[in-house]
Amino acid sequence: MTDAPLRGEQSRSVQPAARLRGEPRLPGDKSISHRALIMAALAEGRSLISGAGDGRDVQATAGILAALGATVERVGGDGLNVDYSVTSPGVDGLHESEAILDCRNSGTSLRLCSGLVAGLPFFSVLDGDASLRSRPVARIIEPLRSMGAALYARRSDSLPPLVVIGRSQLRAIDFETRVPSAQVKSAILLAGLRAEGRTTVREAVATRDHTERMLRSRGIEVRREPAASSGGGSVAWTLEGGSRLSSLDQLVPADPSAAAFWLVAGAIHPDAELTLRGVGVNPTRRAAIDFLVRMGARISETAIGDVVDAAGGPSSEAGEPLADLTVRSSELTAIDLGPADVAAAIDEIPILCLAATQARGRTTIRGAGELRNKESDRIAGVVAGLAALGARIEVGGDDITITGPTALVGAATQTLDDHRLAMTFAVAGLIARGATTIDLAESAAVSYPSFFLELERLRA
Ligand code: S3P
């Protein structure tokens, strides 16, 4: 027996909208929700996490931490977001799980929890669904092994399930990541907490820095060199092992990657005005907003301060900046994005491809190969789906070229069971002529449980 609904039950049909108005509710930031849960499990005592995203990915991390001995309780929520109370015996009180640690569809759970269990002196097995079993793990095995943990995986240590035999005392390393990956960086930094000495992670392109900010807010000194606060450029992160995290209550900002779907919907629809409240605009996460503005999107932004927690106030970069965003119907022009831009907007590339189909001129997205390692091969998936809707979109190697604007026509699209493709094609359906069908549409609930509800509310 399986609890997965039948394929047919999961498909959705989206009709074009005459107008779009309103304030879609957003899930709490997925990246921050995972990290807040993990750090709560590392700190002894009780932490309250308010407004975590209630997608299946974050639920997977919550389940893993419970299996390791933290008491994880859902103390509030509305189906889209959830408040968690996490009571932990502290890192040394966590214990071996009898069952596998089920990451489900979540690459973030897989990579971040590997870094966590590398520093726990027992046997752990991380596994997940069919998509997760195709996600690369060599990128975390290599650094965590050199820190002294033993790791093994299927297909010559390249694919999950992943076995980790951790140690409470690891070796500090100085490591340069090969692919820009905040997940790999975070796994190493989390393991670095259990290492003797100074752990450094160098990245050629700066990736999201939520782990670093959150560690700082919990009393850990994390240094950045060069010390610039904006995204982009090469950067090295260093922390001293052996320090204990303090427990802390955390408010999770709204997810900018979820907001990107509505920013594009509002910009490409001819009669739209949408407002998004309390969106996280961390410099390492806001690239998609900036690219859309560069393309001519009419987005206004009102800063509403930082979610700052502990450790020295706003200038310590321990908090997360927030803003309200309003988007209105726009005339877009093409944009040229290179590999560093792709890394900065790694989760937003599919929806930016949709924006490009409505932009005047030729958009190029170069060096997007990492998209093939996500919940699906997102290059193949987005190109097939948008082409089915009539877009002029081509791939050459890892480069995508889109020529616009093109009037899209509703058709059947395949999501490959990938939440970001499902939401991209649904937004396309709001402007396409006729009905757009989206197979396996319920995959949206991986990161955005109420997505289709919000979509229908906006046209009302
Ligand atoms: C994430 C990092 C990104 C992103 C993922 C979430 C994170 O992955 O695609 O959705 O929370 O650290 P990589 O850093 O591996 O590219």
Strand and helix map with partners:
Elements: H1 7-10, E1 12-14, E2 20-22, H2 30-42, E3 45-53, H3 56-67, E4 71-77, E5 81-88, E6 101-102, H4 107-118, E7 123-127, H5 138-146, E8 150-153, H6 154-157, E9 159-165, E10 170-171, E11 174-176, H7 182-192, E12 195-196, E13 198-203, H8 210-217, E14 222-225, E15 235-240, E16 250-251, H9 256-268, E17 272-280, H10 287-294, E18 298-307, E19 320-328, E20 332-333, E21 336-337, H11 339-344, H12 349-357, E22 359-365, H13 378-388, E23 392-396, E24 399-404, E25 412-413, H14 419-431, E26 436-438, H15 451-459
Parallel strand pairs: 2-17, 3-16, 6-7, 10-12, 11-13, 20-22, 21-22, 25-26
Antiparallel strand pairs: 1-26, 3-5, 4-5, 7-9, 8-9, 13-15, 14-15, 17-19, 18-19, 22-24, 23-24
Notes on the structure:
This protein is an alpha/beta fold and 460 residues long. The chain folds into two domains: 222 residues, UDP-n-acetylglucosamine1-carboxyvinyl-transferase, Chain, CATH 3.65.10.10; 222 residues, Enolpyruvate transferase domain (UDP-n-acetylglucosamine1-carboxyvinyl-transferase, Chain, Alpha-beta prism). 31% of the residues lie in helices and 28% in strands. It is built from 15 helices and 26 strands. Strands 20, 21, 22, 23 and 24 form a five-stranded mixed sheet that branches. The chain has a four-stranded mixed sheet with strand order 2-17-19-18. The protein has a four-stranded mixed sheet with strand order 4-5-3-16, covered by helices on one side. Strand 25, helix 14 and strand 26 form a beta-alpha-beta unit. Helix 13 runs parallel beside helix 14. The longest helix has 13 residues. The radius of gyration is 21 Å and the shape is globular. The chain starts with 6 loop residues before the first helix and ends with a helix. The N terminus is likely disordered. Bound molecules: shikimate-3-phosphate. Shikimate-3-phosphate binds next to helix 7. The site of shikimate-3-phosphate has 11 residues, from helix 7.
